[in-house]
Design goal:
The chain is of the alpha/beta class and about 190 residues long. The chain has a single domain, classed as Rossmann fold, CATH 3.40.50.300. About 60% of the residues lie in helices and about 15% in strands. It has nine helices and five strands; from the N terminus they run E-H-E-H-H-H-E-H-E-H-H-H-E-H. The radius of gyration is 16 Å and the shape is globular.
Length: about 190
């Protein structure tokens, strides 16, 4: 257990704005960031597989099937503890199992969700251009169903803070700053 770190877990469907809105804003406010998806992308690359939606998704499901629903969260604990800042955002929570892992190790843990409609998210992912982003609506929908199958909907539903990200980046960033300030105040009382 690490009582020194204030950890903000971030969940949301792909393309909701987790990286662009929350992570960027958190960096501006002095937070360090751990990205859970990096663990899966690193494993995919280590296996010599191309980084595309099918391979990254298959590796994510295989890791969970083989090592349990907590495997990605457990791999992130050391990364979080190694961060210099006492304020850390862990981006990419996919299930309540992962939430439980982080709450057990970091008593000052808070879960935040970012939400945007499927249409908005698909447009964002199409424009982002990362190699594992879906190029068609069918691939996008398949990815959403895979994310929901591991429990992301439950994590989103249980978040203490919900940021709706349908308008401008500036509006979403203002909401994130307000939420992070509230979280920090809660844990420094």
């Amino acid at each position: 257990m690490n009582a020194d770190k204030t950890v903000v877990g971030l969940t949301g469907m792909p393309g909701a704005g987790k990286s662009l809105v929350l992570v960027e804003t958190a960096h501006e406010l002095g937070y360090d960031v751990v990205v859970m998806g990096d663990v899966i992308r690193e494993e995919t690359t280590k296996r010599g597989l191309e980084l595309n939606p099918k391979n990254v998704g298959a590796v994510m499901l295989e890791l969970r099937a083989k090592h349990g629903n907590n495997v990605i969260a457990e791999k992130c604990i050391e990364k979080i503890e190694q961060k210099k800042s006492s304020l850390v955002v862990v981006e990419g929570i996919r299930s309540l199992h992962e939430v439980d892992v982080f709450r057990t190790h970091f008593p000052k843990f808070t879960l935040m969700a970012i939400h945007a409609s499927p249409e908005t998210r698909f447009k964002r992912l199409s424009n982002r251009g990362r190699s594992d982003d879906p190029k068609t609506w069918d691939v996008f929908h398949e990815r959403d169903m895979r994310e929901l199958s591991v429990g992301i909907g439950s994590a989103i539903a249980m978040a203490q803070f919900m940021i709706i990200n349908e308008s401008s980046q500036e509006a979403a960033k203002a909401k994130v700053k307000e939420a992070l300030k509230e979280i920090e105040e809660k844990w420094t009382k």
